Amino acid sequence: MTTSVPGDAIHIRLRRELAEYLARPHRTKKLRAETRDLVHRLFRKTRKGLADGWTLLEALNPEDGDIATASQLKAALRDQLVKQQGNRCCYCRRWLVNTAYARPIEHVLPKASYAQFSLHFWNLAVACTDCNSKKTNTIWGSIDPNRLKYPLPSSIEDWYHPRFHDYDQHIRYVRLESNETTVIVYQGKTPQGMALCNSLLRHIAAKEMLIANNPALSSFVATINECGDRFDAAKTEKLRDFQDELGASVTRMIDI
Fold first, then answer.
1. What pLDDT, in 10s, does the model give residues 36-61?
2. How many C-beta atoms lie closer than 10 Å to residue 243's C-beta?
3. Which pTM was predicted?
4. Burial 90-110 (b: 16+ CB within 10 A, else e)
5. Could you tell me if 193 and 170 are in contact, meaning their C-beta atoms sit under 8 angstroms apart?
6. CA distances (Å), origin 192, targets 24, 39, 127
């Protein structure tokens, strides 16, 4: 049996969330109207599958007359999504660290396979680096990569969609910490919740417990994470690559 919010309630909430975002698409008030027009133009270029919206976003350049940069648009989008998520990761529900580096924008249907949805508001959420790195370009469910209309909430019954589904209805988690140890358990309550636990959350819990219960490793990871946004884009990318490899190494330790 699946548990979900009634369809009308979901659509009302999603429309409200979109309206809240479009009211503040830029942190600077005087630039919001023009930025809203820019967002609409970028979205129109992607919705027919003609372009990857994230690539268009990264190509924005004020020197060429663009009203905003990619980082400015992402910052405003992240502000809204984080607020809607209660400052927690859309998948594991851990608190999000207050840096852009530690709060990547997640494409629920990965942009590598669904470029037409790369700027679709329903397809965007904010994850922690662990969940974002573990999921990468994994496709959940059986959504046709060639379809041009975003799937409706009622059509997603075998996987968890963080923008459509009520987390508490689908997943139960327990986190216990003491001076010496950390224990984390996720349990799926529905087919969607169980799918998320099996595909992602069991790995996240195992990784966090391995790191948290190893003082030396925990201290090292904390030092790396604190670097956050201190570096320029090139160095930040290298740091992210190192963090991804470190995470992969920890995952291999878990899977042995």
1. 999 999 998 888 777 888 999 999 99
2. 19
3. 0.84
4. bbbbbebeeebbbbbebbbbb
5. yes
6. 32, 31, 18
